[in-house]
Design goal:
The chain has 292 residues and is mainly beta. It folds into two domains: 201 residues, no CATH class; 72 residues. It contains one helix and 23 strands. A hairpin with a 6-residue loop joins strand 2 and strand 3. The protein is elongated. It starts with a strand and ends with a strand.
């Protein structure tokens, strides 16, 4: 979904947020067009004291569009930025509020304007800007338990039932930045996360995500998609990617394995002529073998 800012009758592109249904990662894209050839980096204290590093030149122009990926394991990566990765809670077991990113904008007019026909009324959300047009403002991105009500005013909350919520809180300027860098957009992250290493490995995180959205603790069988690809998510991670044996009610059917890991296997089903069957067929038996 896109979050769009409205001031009077003018619309501005702001952020896109997407949950990856294959592994439970959440991607946040800050929507800006164009490129930059230089940037600043530095540290800022809670009191607003700024330790600015010298201006740096990019080896090649870098897109202004920045992206954050919050993975099911809890790892948070900042793409297109110089900020280091940090570790939070896994997306399926969030127990506290954690502000993992602050985006500071010089003024609203610096964002890209869009037209009404660019808005998807079923998926997008329009936020009415509560501050004056001129002047710096910040947004704080936090992850919270999915059913926890927002505490701060001017907050947009995107909830993923039984998982977590991403809160975006709009604030007027929080830190008084030096005049030399006030014209720039600023991307601020904590110097460290909640943990020094992830609480879950990738396989366990993937399985817990699918079990959470399916509300089950067992193996999950996804029927074929439009291309005829099935997916089986195991109840627990295997020691190694297993050998799979499936027996269908129609014993003439065969399985073509497409990919597998310790957590999931993808395959398609062929008829006696070798053609892919795109409709579900009844499975009589599943055997996953990962022997020593």
């Amino acid at each position: 979904m896109n979050i769009i800012i409205r001031f009077n009758n003018t619309l501005f592109a702001f952020v896109n947020i997407k949950l990856q249904n294959n592994d439970g990662s959440i991607y946040i894209s800050l929507l800006r067009t164009g490129e930059n050839d230089h940037y600043f980096s530095g540290n800022i204290s809670k009191e607003g004291e700024w330790d600015q590093a010298p201006l740096k030149r990019n080896d090649k122009p870098r897109r202004k569009l920045a992206r954050i990926s919050y993975h099911a394991t809890g790892r948070i990566n900042f793409h297109g930025l110089s900020n280091a990765s940090i570790i939070g809670e896994p997306t399926t077991s969030v127990s506290q509020v954690f502000a993992f990113f602050r985006y500071s904008v010089p003024n609203l007019a610096r964002l890209d304007k869009i037209c009404e026909q660019d808005v998807n009324e079923e998926e997008d959300f329009i936020f009415d800007f509560p501050f004056p047009l001129d002047g710096r403002w910040d947004t704080v991105f936090s992850i919270t338990p999915w059913n926890a009500p927002p505490i701060e005013p001017n907050t947009v909350s995107i909830q993923y039932p039984n998982m977590c919520a991403i809160n975006i809180t709009f604030q007027q300027e929080t830190f008084l930045l030096p005049a030399s860098i006030r014209e720039y957009f600023h991307y601020m992250t904590p110097s460290k996360g909640l943990f020094t290493h992830g609480l879950l490995d990738k396989g366990t995180a993937l399985i817990r995500f699918h079990q959470t959205i399916s509300q089950t603790n067992g193996m999950i069988i996804y029927p074929p998609n439009g291309e005829g690809v099935w997916k089986i998510v195991f109840a627990v991670p295997m020691r190694i990617p297993p050998n799979m044996k499936l027996r269908f009610e129609d014993e003439a059917l065969t399985v073509e394995e497409l990919s597998k890991s310790v957590a999931v296997v993808r395959f398609c089903v062929k008829d006696r002529n070798g053609d892919t069957i795109k409709e579900a067929r009844r499975i009589m038996e599943i055997v996953a073998s990962a022997e020593l």
